[in-house]
Amino acid sequence: MRRIIRKLAEDRAAMLGLVLIVLLVLAAIFAPWLSTHPADVTEFHTALRLTPPGEANWLGTDRMGSDIYSRLLFGARITITIAVVAIAVAVVIGVPIGLLAGYYDGIISDLLMRVSDIFLAVPQIVLAIAIAQTLGPSIENVILALSATYWPFWARLVFAETRSCRNEPFVEAAIALGCSPWRVMVLHILPSISSSIIVRTTIGMGGTILTAATLGFLGLGPPPPAPEWGRTIAEAREFLPMAWWYAAFPGLAIFMVVMGFNLLGDGLRDVLDPRLRRAGPGGR
């Protein structure tokens, strides 16, 4: 663990990503105290609509006169909730399926992988839109739509990793000692492939946030007046380019958060799996 932390600390890009993620988490936790207009998040002040950035409203106001800076802070809570829960559900579903299909041979393994292939055959965003449109706009339905489209990625990853290490000497030794299949999968194979799962999960967080913002942009996310970033950008379209701040700052927030998770995921990949290390100046 010390080696991993030291190597990760030497990666400036990964540290930048970690800082961006920490800022997102802190903004979500301390939103009521960091917000300059906490009461304006769900209230309307039409007299202040589309006010440009200034001393009273640091990032300007939206079409209803609500403070954009305050809505971004509270919107971080929605973003974190959707991403964390959706990824957690996808991991809980995909990892066991991948372990079972990778460890065993036969009909069950083929059936599990064919089901995942069916989900992977449909573009992820198209499937997420179809599910969210069918269920209706809400946070719960967005989480369900994202979970249903993401679990095959973890299933496929764990399947491939399990197949590659199930014939390793340490697995054969555990079987020879009389360990049950569940013990072999959970206590021997799963820890050995955990680095790949961690990297995929970290990078997947960024993709989940971007997809959730896309659903919000299409009107399939949390309904108004929830301060969801994607919906905010959709509302700002009709006021461009006059009220440029209306779309610019939510878009910048999405960009920074997604970039943070991608940078941290790349750094973890370099540290946890040297075989996939990025090629940098001087043949890093």
Kindly describe this structure.
The protein is an all-alpha fold. The protein has a single domain, classed as Orthogonal Bundle (MetI-like fold). It is 71% helix and 0% strand. It contains twelve helices and no strands. The protein has helices spanning 2-10, 12-29, 31-34, 68-103, 107-121, 124-135, 139-165, 169-176, 181-192, 194-217, 229-236, 244-272. Helix 4 (68-103) runs antiparallel to helix 5 and helix 7 runs antiparallel to helix 10 (194-217). The longest helix has 36 residues, at 68-103. It is elongated, with a radius of gyration of 22 Å. The two termini are 21 Å apart.
List keywords for this structure.
single chain; 284 residues; mainly alpha; MetI-like fold; 12 helices; 0% strand; elongated; disordered C terminus
CATH architecture designation: Orthogonal Bundle
Major sheet details: none
Work out the helicity level. over 70%
Distance between the termini: 21 Å
Which runs of at least 5 residues are low in confidence (pLDDT < 50)? 277-284
User: How much of the sequence is in beta strands?
Assistant: under 5%
Q: What is the CATH H-level superfamily?
A: MetI-like
What name is given to the CATH topology? Answer: MetI-like fold
Helical run tally: 12
Number of strands: 0
CATH class: Mainly Alpha
Q: What is the mean predicted local confidence, pLDDT?
A: 86
Number of domains: 1
Gyration radius, in Å: 22 Å
Order of helices and strands: HHHHHHHHHHHH
Based on secondary structure, the structural category is mainly alpha
Global morphology: elongated
